[in-house]
Amino acid sequence: MNARLFCALALLCCCSGLAAQQDLSKVEVVATPIRDGLYLVTGSGGNIVASTGEDGTFLVDDQYAPLTERIQAALDEITEHPVRFVINTHWHADHVGGNENFAEAGAVIVAHENVRRRMSTEQFMAAFNRTVPASPAKALPVVTFAAGVSLHLNGDDVRVIHVANAHTDGDALVHFERANVLHMGDIYFNGLYPFIDLDSGGGIHGMIDAAELGLGLADEDTVVVPGHGPLSNRAELAAYRDMLAGFRERIAALKAEGRTLEEVIAAKPTVEFDEALGGRFISAERLIGFIYRSL
Q: Are 179 and 225 in contact (CB under 8 A)?
């Protein structure tokens, strides 16, 4: 299986909750320094940021349950302090799958109130024709917020900010103010087209608005952590925002002319980015459908 196809299948499993059908046995979990006691932890699923220091360890997202021991082993290599908090950027399985394990080990799970609501009940993801069962009670966030919440740990002020109806209806950006690191969650897919979960309250307007908010929090020195893909920066996030805004403008104009979705897809409003970004997870046709139905 080539690397591009493997990436696409892995992301499909991640976002649609198919962990049981994905072979995670050979996944290597790696912790890479970012700055100021922050690490990027990668394995399978959404990018994790780990904050380490004398106040303990806290995570932004936690991937899949079968990876928890490997995630913990990677953390043990960089800190002796246990995980005290886990912040979920949204409810999808590749970002919350380790909640139960970390909660049982003593961590407090924090997320937007819609994350707890969706995890508490069965969800249907039409994009993948997949029903996701309710999560175990111990996996649910026990601290929830509406607009946002702040944590003051390891010498940093960490702002967790809700963004409405973007990737889902429960997304949060996580801004480490002193370290100048911004985790965008799945608002930002770096190097591939994004998944917009319309069934979970997502939409193109919220995606663009959330990217705008991220740009307002960032400067030229900010390390921007996407939900998927390599570490990034403000200039690349701005280019991503501009791309989505351009797609929305073109598709809206075609829809206003009365064109059907099939006719809009045939018009190829995303063509200049399709080769680079459209073959890894979300196809151009599927992204156009997300945007068309958002308008």
A: no
